[in-house]
Design a protein that fits this description.
Radius of gyration: 29 Å
Distance between the termini: 110 Å
Number of strands: 34
Strand content: 15-25%
Length: 643
């Protein structure tokens, strides 16, 4: 064998999947070219290629659809890191999943050595070369059946959307993956896992979607057509490990690098923040492009025209050749290149792509505005609106939580103006994509009965209104209470379970009070509720409250906890008609049980509320309030007589 051939086989390869099989960024970007969507005014794919180049990768195979290959090629030619890479493109219009891509690679015979496999949406710096060498050593001298090392990152953010949605069990000495489960909440582990060896049970890991593969991986996908995703592959190998004779390993990035995958708008927000806070150094704006860095993570491009009274707040990027009028305030926002922003405009927590015009007195909050769009005077675009490219919003428009297109290509959109069509997801019954599409996270804390549910009546969520850990805590409390009531579990044991969940998910005391009451009032399924009338519903609810009296006493025992309890009751009543009809009886019953104090009920009733629902609830409670006040007066008069 010649020396050149040996050297060619030893060259490190990477496969970048540049077509995304989802519509998470639509209409700002489609799945075929979403890798070119700007993140801090730079295409996502450029970050990925830079990471590979800095890691010592030489050959890169880029997979994309034939419809987007020309745009991707043109963009890659402009990427700094790609100039030192040997980039080969492979296309297919028949691939509909990650598994299809691996089967396509197998048929093309493009892989000749161990390789790095990742999506074209990974941002960061990883020491890939040592990891590949370690993987080769493992296969040569340790475990010849090792086919993949999955790279995880330990999350420092407990409320990150991707934290807590998977449980991974690793062999403590080797890092071999023994168990993987995507389910939230409680899981059942095979007993032999913890009896045979020392293991690490991890729920703090985020999947970077970067993996190191042996040449056996594409043939494994080719032989198993039910492997459509990486999770399918992992699950299949763990279940059929002895049959397939293949093993998986994990490497956890903890202080020796950073990797963030941008797969939806919440992760887009999170990774953008990490770039601005310089976790991705040297992939930061002033290094990879022509920006100057100012105090507060403010990045200023070239050739700007800023009015003297224009205010740029923290965590803000303004692209080159842009203009900003007087009285304009911008914070926690990325402004693209060649943008024109008028006078007295407010932009907060938003992403404005290239060539956008925003005219006077407009307000943009927690929204995305696509390339070459125009927002005319006095318009309000807020609460996770996503505007595609070329959209024109007419003056004096107020919109929230909408997806806007410049044309009605689907014939299922509502016309707002000549170049603004609101997409209606409910009318798109023919859509092949059944997954919920998340928008920007725009609420800090909003409790709602439907916030953690997966009801068929719920529309696609555009914002994560409750942190994931809180949802998981609530779900586990519901499970504990249902099992406790049905199996007559002692309440002291239930309190221990609830406290364990509280500590596991880092839930503070007042949130725990709120969620315990919320769980206690939502133990019935929808089918059970439909079969109940008002009398039977209250009878069942009263018996449950009586049974859980020790639990109530454990959590509701102060003025603040009484306030949390009443807030939870009112919140649930907004979405549950049966509870709404008996809400006063529930409050009265809790008073008779010495859970709610007279003072807390009176304070709740006197609290001024803006919503009609809150006012109606308090009007219903007027008789109870009068009775409490009369009882208080009688008590006071009795005390005076005795003195």
């Amino acid at each position: 064998m010649s020396t050149n051939k040996v050297q060619k086989q030893d060259v490190l390869q990477a496969v970048v999947v540049a077509s995304f099989f989802h519509k998470n960024f639509w209409p700002a970007a489609d799945g075929d070219s979403a890798c070119l969507m700007p993140l801090v005014n730079r295409p996502l794919l450029h970050y990925t290629l830079d990471m590979l180049e800095s890691s010592g990768i030489v050959d890169v195979v880029v997979f994309c659809s034939s419809g987007s290959v020309d745009r991707i090629k043109d963009s890659v030619q402009l990427a700094t890191g790609a100039r030192r890479l040997n980039v080969v493109y492979t296309t297919s219009d028949t691939c509909r999943s990650f598994g299809d891509v691996l089967r396509h690679l197998d048929s093309c015979a493009l892989i000749r050595n161990d390789f790095v496999l990742l999506w074209g949406n990974v941002v960061g710096q990883l020491p890939l070369l040592p990891l590949v060498k370690r993987f080769k050593t493992l296969r040569q001298s340790g475990d010849r059946g090792a086919v993949m090392t999955i790279i995880y990152q330990r999350s420092g953010d407990p409320n990150a959307a991707s934290v807590g949605d998977q449980t991974i069990v690793l062999a403590a000495d080797t890092g071999r993956v023994l168990f993987h489960n995507r389910a939230r909440g409680k899981i059942s582990l095979p007993l032999e896992l913890v009896l045979d060896s020392t293991v690490d049970i991890r729920r703090d890991l985020v999947d970077t979607n970067v993996v190191i593969c042996s040449t056996a991986v594409p043939p494994l996908f080719a032989d198993n057509f039910d492997f459509q995703t990486k999770d399918d592959f992992v699950k299949g190998l763990l279940i059929n490990e002895e049959i397939l004779n293949s093993t998986l390993y994990a490497h956890v990035v903890d202080g020796d690098g950073y990797a963030g995958e941008v797969f939806d708008w919440p992760s887009y927000q999170r990774v953008t923040r990490d770039v601005l806070h310089r976790w991705t150094y040297p992939q930061v704006p002033e290094v990879v492009d022509k920006y100057s860095l100012r105090y507060g993570n403010v990045y200023i491009g070239e050739n700007l025209k800023l009015a003297l009274t224009c205010n740029l707040g923290n965590d803000t990027v303004v692209g080159s050749d842009s203009k900003f009028g007087s009285g304009t305030r911008i914070s926690n926002t990325v402004i693209g290149k060649n943008c024109t922003i008028g006078n007295n405009v407010t932009i907060e927590n938003s992403y404005i792509f290239n060539g956008v015009t925003i005219k006077d007195r407009s307000v943009i909050r927690f929204s995305v505005v696509g390339d070459n769009s125009m927002i005319k005077e006095n318009s309000h675009i807020t609460d996770s609106c996503i505007l595609g490219s070329g959209v024109v919003i007419e003056p004096n428009i107020d919109m929230k939580q909408l997806r806007i297109l410049s044309s009605d290509s689907t014939n299922k959109s509502k016309k707002l103006s000549a170049k603004a069509y609101a997409y209606n997801a409910e009318d798109d019954s023919d859509s092949e994509d059944d997954q919920d599409v998340k928008g920007l996270t725009f609420r800090k804390r909003t409790w709602s009965i439907n916030s953690c549910s997966s009801s068929d009546d719920d529309t696609a969520s555009v914002a994560a209104s409750i942190p994931d850990d809180t949802c998981m805590f609530y779900s586990e409390v519901v499970d504990s209470l249902i099992r406790g009531f049905e199996d007559h579990v002692h309440c002291d044991n239930l309190i221990l379970e609830i406290n364990s969940s509280r500590y596991a998910y880092n839930i503070n005391y007042r949130e725990a009070n709120f969620q315990v009451i919320r769980a206690m009032l939502t133990l019935n399924s929808k089918a059970e509720l439909e079969a109940l009338n008002q009398v039977r519903y209250y009878t069942q609810l009263q018996s449950k409250l009586d049974y859980f009296l020790p639990v109530l006493r454990n959590y509701i025992k102060s003025t603040d906890s009484c306030e949390d309890c009443l807030s939870a009751i009112e919140d649930i009543a907004k979405g549950e008609e049966l509870l709404n009809t008996v809400i006063v009886k529930v409050i009265h019953h809790l008073y008779n049980m010495n859970i709610l104090s007279e003072e807390s009920i009176l304070k709740w009733h006197e609290k001024e509320e803006d919503t009609q629902f809150a006012k109606t609830i308090r009007e219903k409670a007027n008789k109870l309030i009068d009775w409490l006040k009369d009882a208080e007066e009688e008590t006071d008069s009795d005390d005076d007589d005795s003195s």
